[in-house]
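Lab notebook, bench 4. The sequencing result for the construct came back, and we need a structural model before the next group meeting so we can plan mutations. Quick request posted to the team channel:

Model the 3D structure of this chain.
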Amino acid sequence: MDDVIFNGSDEAPPVGMADVSITLIADQERFPGAYAECSEVMVSRRIFRDAESEYAINRIPCRLLDVREFFMVPVWAQELFSGGTE
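Done. Here's the predicted structure in token form:
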């Protein structure tokens, strides 16, 4: 992941980290668990040159496991997203 952190240029010094966020909007479906009442959820990751990472959901620090669980689709719901079986 080192290649996503800006190494500097003639005009700007290098930086020690990179971060990215994605904002999801609940149109007709609800978010899982504790986020069910949210109309938007922002998931963020910040990575540092020493390979350490920080994660956040709605700007609240969390673990990678929490992010993974947020995006996990329960087995019983997979049929809903796939349109059923034929």
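The radius of gyration is 17 Å.
Will bring this to the meeting.
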